[in-house]
Amino acid sequence: GVVLVLSGFENPLRSQLRAAAVGLGAQYRPEWTPDSTQSVCAFPRTPKAARARQLGGLLVGPAWIWDCQRTGRRLPCGPYLLDGSASSGSDGEGPEDAPPPSRPARKAGKGAGPPPP
C-alpha cells in the first residue's frame, strides 16, 4: 500500500532509493498523485515536499527506506517524519510486513546512506 515520491535526491542515490523501495513492494510516482502515501525527501523544503505536505502526505527521510530494507518489513513512519509533515496517525502506519529485501541487508550504523555496492 505504499506509493512514494522521491524529492531532492540525485542519481545514483535516487535510483538506489527507488530500487530499494520497489524491491520491498512499494510503487513509485515521479510526482505527488492522489494515491501517493509518502514523500521521501532529502530536505523538508522542496517543491515536491510542499505539495505533499499541502495534501496531507507523510514526509520521511531516506533512512526509512534503508531501515525497512534492513529489517525486511514496513516500519512505522513516525520516527522518520521530517519537519512539517503530517502527524503520525493510522494513515500509512500499519504493521503490515513488506516483502523481504531483494538483496542482502546492510549492517546497522549509517541510517541515511545508501546500501553498500
What global shape is seen? globular
Low-confidence stretches: 87-111
Helix-strand makeup class: alpha/beta
Order of helices and strands: EHEEHEH
Largest sheet: 4 strands, parallel
Write up this protein.
One of its GO terms (biological process) is base-excision repair. Residues 79-117 are annotated as: Disordered. InterPro entries: BRCT_dom, BRCT_dom_sf. One of its GO terms (cellular component) is nucleus. It holds the Pfam family BRCT. It is a single chain. With 117 residues, the chain is α/β, with parallel strands linked by helices. The protein has a domain at 3-80: Rossmann fold (3-Layer(aba) Sandwich). It has 3 helices and 4 strands. The chain has helices spanning 13-23, 47-54, 63-71; strands at 3-7, 27-28, 38-41, 58-60. Strands 2-1-3-4 form a 4-stranded parallel β-sheet, sandwiched between helices. Strand 3 (38-41), helix 2 and strand 4 (58-60) form a beta-alpha-beta unit.
Q: What order do the helices and strands come in, and which of them pair?
A:
Elements: E1 3-7, H1 13-23, E2 27-28, E3 38-41, H2 47-54, E4 58-60, H3 63-71
Parallel strand pairs: 1-2, 1-3, 3-4
